[in-house]
Amino acid sequence: MKSLIPPLALLFSGLMPLSACALQPELQALVDEAKAEVDMVPMQRLAEVREQEGVLVIDIREPTELELSGRVEGAVNIPRGMIEFNIWPYVEREGGGHDKSRPIYIYCQSGSRSVLAAQSLQRLGFEQVHAVKMRFEEWVDAGLPVEDDF
Questions:
Q1: I want to staple 65 with a disulfide (CB 3.0 to 4.6 A). Which of 34, 61, 77, 93 is the partner?
Q2: Pairwise CA distance, residues 56 & 105, whole Å
Q3: What's the maximum distance between 2 C-alpha atoms anywhere in the chain?
């Protein structure tokens, strides 16, 4: 696995994700509102369900973040800014249409972006969307499966 770069180095390199920085009050209010609407699940729940048939795990971090640290094994990458546009191929039904009841688990680096993405998918009519409460480093530190050869 690729080594994790210390957060301070990321901050100075300009690669520190916004979610890892202190949120502005207006943004924090937006995230808090989303948390009230979205099903939040602990990291352990993702570890338990990620390999179940039909479960879709989405890493919404930017590709540069994945290059530095890898991603949860089996997760697909759809950056936060593109989730509403790029979710569709992953929920297609055979014969046409989309499976909006497919279980979807979304995570990011620290939790704020995943909550906003989950809220957005819910507003598009997805029924089983879950934002995972975790820091990606916690997943790595727990020895849970990570892939970096994608």
A1: 61
A2: 6
A3: 49
pLDDT tens, 3-38?
444 444 444 334 444 444 577 999 899 999 999 999
Contact 90, 116 (CB under 8 A): no
Helices and strands: H and E segment counts in the chain: 7, 7
Angstrom distance (rounded) from CA 56 to CA 116? 17
Nearest to 110 by CA among 21, 6, 14: 21
Distances (CA, A) of 148 to 6, 41, 64, 75, 145: 18, 24, 12, 11, 10
pTM: 0.83
How does pLDDT run across 44-101, given as a tens digit for each residue? Answer: 999 999 999 999 999 999 999 999 999 999 999 999 999 999 999 999 999 999 999 9
